Amino acid sequence: MTEWDVKKLRILRTLRDRGTVTATAEALLMTPSAVSQQLTNLARQLGVDLLEAQGRRVRLTDAAHLVLHHAEAVFAQLERAEAELTGYLRGEAGEVRVAAFSTAVPALVVPAVRLLRAEDRPGPDVRVREAEAAQAYELLTAGEVDLALSLAAHAPTARDPRFSLFPLLVDPLDVALPVGHPLADAPGLRLADLAADRWIFGGSGPWSEITTAACEAAGFVPEQAHSAAGWTAILALVEAGMGVALVPRMASREQRREGVVMRVPEADRPRRHVVAAARHGAESGPAVARVLAALTETAQSFS
């Protein structure tokens, strides 16, 4: 019978995810030569070639992808076993590490922790790490966090066998206008009504893409007057009359300014979707399941 070495399979999966032997070694705190040696041993154990040269780099063979396709089920089952064992040993009060984007920390994670603390039974010890989607999923893959919160547009697909995805909420995007804006009180405000205005959004990244996509869907390209990534800075610029901005309701509920009017563009209804992800199988652990339930309950307050 062929010998399947889980440790070596994890190295192979990390190489697939990271792309190079050097990056794999860094992620696993190994030397590149140790990574190569382990993969050579795995190929010998399985009796197939797992890697082939591609210039100065290596690529996974079709056999390697076939091996990993079946190995994902093994990894998921091991996650379930670890989750159940942790639940058996610790009850439901284990540690749950959460990576979340900046807006989600005060709007979702902190209220969820408060819900858990208000329960009569001991709750999980939630450890929070602020991280954008790319980093959050790297941490989740590496086992450094247990849950990752991100926008759905930047999450893995539902077909990715490594993760289980859980929709949390649909977050409406409102228009932030200075109090003295001519359309601050206008009925039936549309994004197209603001086509001639100066806009405030980040120079790159998710929020730049969301703002430009919403405006282009409304029929115009927004003129970027100022570049800012943090909601404190964006709303301060709006309050000063220096432009208008799209702001997610999750952020505007946490940061209110007297000089800013939040309007709902009824005709356009732009929105973003927020999801949570766990390693496939790990969501069955009692502590992770309780944190997910608290996040879901918190998210329902935005509906």
UniProtKB/TrEMBL annotation:
Domain named HTH lysR-type: residues: 4-61
UniProt keyword annotations, A-Z: DNA-binding, Transcription, Transcription regulation
Gene3D superfamilies: Periplasmic binding protein-like II, Winged helix-like DNA-binding domain superfamily/Winged helix DNA-binding domain
Pfam family, one: HTH_1
PROSITE patterns (UniProt xref): HTH_LYSR (PS50931)
Top-level division of the source organism's lineage: Bacteria
SUPFAM superfamilies: Periplasmic binding protein-like II (SSF53850), Winged helix' DNA-binding domain (SSF46785)
Entry similarity comment: Belongs to the LysR transcriptional regulatory family.
Name of the protein described by the UniProt record: Transcriptional regulator, LysR family
Source organism (scientific name): Streptomyces globisporus
